[in-house]
Amino acid sequence: NGSVLNYTHFMECTRCNNSCVGENIATLDAWLQSLGTGTLRYTMLFSLQALLIGYLSAPHCVHLIYELYFENTLETGMETGILLHYDFNECQMVLKDDPAKKLMYYVHMGVDVGVVLVCLISIIVTLKKMDRGYKLYVKTRDFIKRSYYRSLNRREKNLFISYWHLCIILADVMLIGAGILKLLIDLEQEYHFDSCTLLLGGGVWLTYLGLLRYLVFDKHYSMLLNTMVVALPHLARFLICVIIISLSFILCGWLILSPYCTKFATFFVTMETLF
Question: Helix, strand, coil proportions of the chain in percent (round to 5)?
Answer without folding.
Answer: 60, 20, 20
